[in-house]
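Trying the structure run again after the queue cleared.
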Amino acid sequence: MAALIGLFGRVDPWGLPLVDAFGRALIGTTAAWIVLRLLPRAGLPLMARGGRAAMAVGASMIPAALDGWIALAAWAIVIVVALALGGPILRTAAGLLALIAVAAAAAGGVALVQAAGDIEDLQSQLTAVEDELFVEPDAVVTTLDRAEATIESARSSLDVWWARPARLVPVVSHHFLLGDSVVDSSAAIVEAARPIADTDAGELIELGRLDLDRIDDLSAVVAVVAAAADTGLRDLEDLDRRWFLGPARTEVDEALDELRERTDTLDKLARLSHDALPYLGADGPQRWFVLVCTPAEARASCGFPGNWVEFVMDDGATDLVDSGRINSLEVDAVEADLTLSDPPEFVAHYGRFDPVPTLRKITHTPDLPSTAEALATPHDERGRPPPHLIAAVNTHG
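Done. Tokens:
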């Protein structure tokens, strides 16, 4: 009964389901044995023997009901008391086992330190890949090659034969699971990023025309990288971070925040590169109206709109319709005596700035869709076909 109670406990200092279940069962049985050993046995009536058994079962529930480091402390107390009550053979065997565990933990610590150095290098290499992507294809391939070598080095450190016993030492085993998770997820990301590394951004443009088929293929590849990053994120989130020592826990928390941000960026990039295809003329001509902004004067959306350009995208090819300074639109707005009526929220917040005749103030709002809706009125009054898409780009765009 005590062993069964231990099987269904919560504490998992190894992070290995079968080993944790065996450990809980063993500790629960030991706690029950301690109570039975301490309480009187001979000459007890039936009711007293039942109470004695109930106390033993209750004692076995204590280490099974606790969790985390408190449970581990309770385990240590149970082991110490059991050794005090046991004979010299039990204490000798426990002492030898403790020495082996300490030696294994020390060897595991050396392996983890070696792997940690490789993982730190790997993080720098993956950051370099992100910076070089589409900009320096040759450099990306070189960096990915170095990352693969670093991954193999880290994996060798974690799998070295003399450190394997450390995976059976409580708490230490969780740090090996962390190293395995980081290395495996990094390997998946590096493998998925290979096709992107072979893509030169310049190859997406041929004779002044965007190659929409290649952009669509590239969006699928980015989606694969995003999926690999998302899997790595879930694997890290599934780890029991309570057992990590302070520095490791801090590193994991920081890595999780960074990986969430990058995974979100990759997901958006994959969706954007695919969903943008219709606006690039994949399904027919698309008219764009774009404000070209500069941060020379503060505006909430993207800066001061000093220029504008209107063009048509058809199957990736661009046909310039018109362009000019922002004051050319302002002259048309003044001559037509335009006033701003939509959207209501935009008018309520920014109508006092008279943003239609003075279109350089149109990007006051941080909500770009409101800016686009407000721009639709002066654009229609100029007698041009309504644009399919209104956008704004700053000097970094």
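The mean pLDDT is 79. Worth checking whether this holds up in the mutant runs.
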